Task: inverse folding
């Protein structure tokens, strides 16, 4: 059955799951055979999580979720491209997901590589260069704001990624304007496991 959660209720559900994970009291919900069987014909996730590909940032684990709960999209440094935009638009228009989460984390390797490229002028080889080019505006903005720490740059990149989604996609911006969808930016701390709110677009 569809959840029909509001953006605020979806965020509360994620927040409560993250608190369980932080405190070591995860429930591991919706991970049994009956849940698997109930999802054969359709899915009704209550959030779409667009996060970094980092192996320490497994969305279903850090928010204590199970099968069918979250539609997850991941790229290194949570970098947006056309496939990401298409995936997020699909979650909004077809799956009616009420909440888009941008999930960054401290000590992000992609942001570190971009910081190094900006400081040295030396770009990495291959398609890693594409990642760095897409993260560079966030690093430059952070530096203009006298934020030279990589974790401060991560937060800026999360904020800019959220804003760019709303600017780039008519599907997403219309859903925000209608009050059906909100976009939040979270920064995850690897040591304590907590995902902290750093930005919000739309009604929560």
Result:
């Amino acid at each position: 059955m569809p959840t029909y959660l509001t953006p605020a209720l979806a965020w509360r559900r994620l927040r409560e799951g993250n608190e369980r994970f932080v405190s070591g009291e995860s429930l591991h919900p919706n991970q049994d055979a009956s849940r698997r069987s109930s999802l054969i014909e359709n899915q009704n996730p209550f959030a779409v999580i667009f996060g970094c590909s980092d192996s320490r940032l497994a969305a279903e684990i850090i928010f204590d979720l199970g099968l069918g709960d979250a539609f997850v999209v991941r790229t290194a440094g949570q970098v947006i491209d056309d496939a990401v935009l298409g995936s997020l638009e699909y979650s909004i228009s077809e799956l009616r997901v009420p909440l888009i989460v941008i999930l960054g984390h401290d000590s992000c390797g992609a942001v570190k590589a971009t910081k190094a490229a900006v400081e040295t002028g030396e770009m990495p080889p291959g398609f890693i260069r594409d990642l760095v080019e897409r993260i560079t505006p966030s690093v430059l903005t952070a530096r203009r704001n006298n934020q030279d720490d990589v974790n401060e740059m991560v937060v800026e990149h999360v904020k800019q990624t959220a804003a760019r989604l709303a600017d780039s996609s008519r599907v997403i911006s219309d859903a925000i304007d209608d009050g059906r969808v909100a976009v939040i930016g979270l920064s995850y701390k690897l040591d304590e496991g907590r995902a902290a709110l750093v930005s919000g677009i739309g009604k929560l």
About this structure: The longest strand covers residues 99-105. The CA atoms of residues 39 and 61 lie 19 Å apart.
